[in-house]
């Protein structure tokens, strides 16, 4: 899906393989699986939106949670600090 300047209300939207620019999401369920790249640019998400992570995206979050709890707190905090400061350039392995 390619969307520019659209408003989505109370829809379930798969993000994988999609491009969204200048869009509004209101009360949507946003699903990310991590199997295809996505592009999100200058969008707004209201607090009623819900995020679902499936497949590889879910497994990655579960791994990060386990790593954090198993003594990797500094690594995970460092990843988030890198995302906050430079948009994620600190994440190793970008292809």
Q: What's this entry about, in short?
A:
This protein is an alpha/beta fold. It has one helix spanning 55-86; strands at 2-4, 7-9, 12-14, 19-21, 24-26, 29-32, 39-41, 44-45, 50-53.
Structure keywords:
single chain; 95 residues; alpha/beta; three-stranded parallel beta sheet; 1 helix; 34% helix
Describe this structure in words.
This protein has 95 residues and is an alpha/beta fold. It is built from 1 helix and 9 strands, in the order E-E-E-E-E-E-E-E-E-H. Strands 1-4-7 form a 3-stranded parallel β-sheet, with no helix packed on it. It has a 3-stranded parallel β-sheet with strand order 2-5-8, with no helix packed on it. The mean pLDDT is 91.
Protein structure class = alpha/beta
Average pLDDT: 91
Tally of strands: 9
Largest sheet, in brief, is: 3 strands, parallel
Q: Label the overall shape.
A: elongated
What is the rounded distance between the termini? 23 Å
Radius of gyration: 15 Å
Uncertain parts: none
How much of the residues is beta strand, in percent? 25-35%
Total number of helical segments?
1
Spatial strand sequence of the major β-sheet: 1-4-7
Helix content: 25-40%
Secondary structure layout plus pairing:
Blueprint: E1 2-4, E2 7-9, E3 12-14, E4 19-21, E5 24-26, E6 29-32, E7 39-41, E8 44-45, E9 50-53, H1 55-86
Parallel strand pairs: 1-4, 2-5, 3-6, 4-7, 5-8, 6-9
């Amino acid at each position: 899906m390619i969307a520019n300047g659209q408003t989505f209300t109370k829809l379930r939207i798969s993000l994988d393989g999609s491009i969204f620019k200048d869009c509004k999401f209101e009360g949507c369920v946003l699903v990310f699986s991590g199997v295809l790249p996505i592009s999100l640019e200058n969008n707004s998400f209201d607090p009623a939106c819900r995020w679902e992570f499936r497949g590889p995206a879910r497994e990655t979050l579960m791994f990060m949670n386990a790593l954090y709890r198993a003594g990797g707190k500094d690594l995970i905090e460092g990843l988030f600090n890198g995302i906050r400061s430079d948009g994620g350039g600190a994440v190793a392995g970008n292809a």
